[in-house]
Specification:
about 525 residues; alpha/beta; 18 helices; 12 strands
Length: about 525
């Protein structure tokens, strides 16, 4: 009977290894195989607690197994096997039975995470699984050849299963480290080829867009408006890294293109400059600066300096910068770096090659981004009629403050494309326009570093003044949200923490009525399936 459960446990272990391998590769790919982003991700409260808990459980079992293995070997030679062997085997079998049910549950709930299949992700996942499966097969074979009693063989096999399980994330990390020189050289080759290609387009008008938020929507608005007069190429989706821009140039840039709109993102100083060196923009748009990705940049000043790399580069080439005059960090930088002869000045006294735009109405972020696109369109010679024609063609960006039909004829505001503190507060302000009950469904904002507690606390307090109920679908920083909301006037009954999206959707369906509005913010709530 015990042999049957051993075989079953090994099958469960194999399924667990498949699930965890795909998840680890998915996580690395999500963080662009960057060690700095992965470190920040693992330092978050949720990951810290989960990794510590399960790592500690398996670590304790492993230590117990090593002890049991020693005394079991002696027992096999000098006497009957120790009862502790049986206890150890049962404990490990129970653990992997539990992991099997987690595997089934993740599949049924469509939360089976796997990477987007590329050459790199396929190699990482395939190599890891094949290596561990071969290692486990050899372990089972070797254990069976020892001549010890069956119980000793069982415990040694299960001990190896635990060891390989704990080593899996380290093994995948080692493979990524091993691939780094090849990835680096490959990236440099792609960037070099892209730079050579784009140099063959001397008449191409190149527009760079950066900012802590608002980059993608500004890019989309601008591409549509300019499309009324020019043949436009833009970076797709949220492609905004040096390698992503280079691949866009190599795969999509054609002789008929007249304008290239490039979204530029960064997690460290110098990365926007790298993209500028690649494409040499003549016009640069700076949408906004906040503390987004503070954990990676290290300080707010580093974020400001990084975003202004685009402005400085464009101006050094004799181009024009278009910047958001309502952002406090941009205002301060402009007044201290670009005034006409004085250290501090009004924005109207900024240099002539910097256009400072302001939002035209209360509709928060999107109106400012639209104004930036209009200013650039004018720079490129579009008439007011052509601009108006383009404005009529603009459609809301997917998952960026998009109104959709919700449960029981309610309204859902889908803002799950991205997440930052300023954008969240602005999205909450939009609830003022609605007359029904207001529900705020929120997932954490990542990579805020030292500002994480403070900003989530601030969001909770502000949400209490704008919403009737708050649903938190991620336990990370949920305490900070709750404390802020309590300070803002909510009571505990108005706040619900629910990480199971199916249950959360059911709760909303039961509560929400006609004319109510549900604001979804952050990348988590897009799994609700409304």
């Amino acid at each position: 009977m015990l042999l049957f459960f051993l075989y079953l446990s090994i099958i469960f272990w194999f399924l667990h290894i498949i699930r965890k391998t795909l998840f680890y590769v998915y996580s690395w790919q999500l963080k662009e195989y960057r060690w700095d982003r992965m470190k920040t991700h693992l330092m978050s409260k949720r990951w810290n607690s989960e990794l510590f808990f399960w790592g500690a459980c398996k670590g304790v079992l492993l230590l117990a197994g090593l002890y049991v293995s020693d005394i079991s070997t002696l027992s096999a030679v000098y006497g009957p096997a120790d009862v502790s062997m049986v206890v150890f085997c049962i404990a490990v079998m129970t653990l992997y039975s539990f992991e099997f049910f987690n595997f089934i549950r993740s599949v049924l709930k469509h939360r089976f995470y796997r990477p987007r299949w590329t050459v790199k992700s396929s190699f990482l996942a395939g190599s890891s699984m094949v290596f561990l499966f071969l290692l486990m097969s050899l372990t089972i074979f070797a254990a069976g050849m020892t001549g010890f009693i069956e119980m000793v063989v069982y415990s040694s096999v299960l001990l190896s299963a635990l060891e390989y399980d704990l080593l899996l994330p380290l093994f995948i990390s080692f493979l990524i480290l091993l691939l780094y020189p090849f990835s680096y050289l490959g990236k440099k080759l792609i960037v070099y080829l892209a730079k050579r290609k784009i140099c063959g387009f001397p008449n191409l008008k190149i527009i760079g867009i950066t900012g802590s938020y608002g980059k993608s929507s500004t890019k989309e608005f601008l591409a549509v408006i300019l499309g009324t007069k020019y043949k436009v190429l833009k970076t797709a989706g949220n492609t905004n890294t040096e390698i992503g821009v280079a691949q866009t140039i190599l795969k999509q840039l054609k002789p008929e293109h007249e304008v290239f709109v490039v979204e530029m993102g960064a997690y460290r100083k110098g990365e926007i400059q790298d993209i500028c060196d690649l494409v040499a923009p003549q016009i640069g748009i700076l949408t906004a600066i906040s503390n987004q990705h503070l954990a990676l940049f290290g300080s707010q000043q580093n974020i400001i300096d990084a975003k202004f790399e685009l402005v400085e580069d464009v101006l050094s080439r004799g181009g024009t910068a278009v910047v958001n005059g309502e952002n406090e960090f941009i205002q301060e930088y402009l007044s201290t770096h670009f005034c006409k002869g004085t250290k501090f000045c009004a924005l109207t006294e900024i240099r002539d090659d910097i256009i400072v735009y302001n939002k035209k109405n209360e509709d928060a972020v999107l109106s400012g981004n639209l104004q930036a696109a209009i200013e650039v369109a004018r720079l490129l010679g579009l008439s007011e009629n052509e601009i108006q024609k383009g404005l009529l063609l603009i459609r809301p960006s997917e998952r960026a403050m998009v109104n959709k039909s919700g449960w029981n004829s309610s309204t859902i505001i889908d803002n799950t494309y991205n997440a930052n503190t300023v954008g969240c507060l602005s999205a909450l302000d939009s609830l003022k326009k609605y007359s029904g009950k207001k529900f705020f469904v929120f997932s954490e904002i990542q990579e805020l570093g030292a500002d994480s507690e403070k900003d989530h606390n601030k969001i909770g307090e502000y949400a209490a003044t704008r919403a009737d109920m708050i649903f938190i679908c991620n336990k990370n920083y949920s305490d900070s949200i709750i404390k802020g909301a309590l300070r803002g006037g909510m009571n505990e009954k108005q706040m619900i923490v629910e990480t199971d999206y199916k249950k959360l959707a059911q709760q909303l369906k039961e509560i929400v009525q006609k004319d109510d509005v549900v604001l979804l913010y952050g990348r988590g709530p897009n799994h609700l399936g409304y």
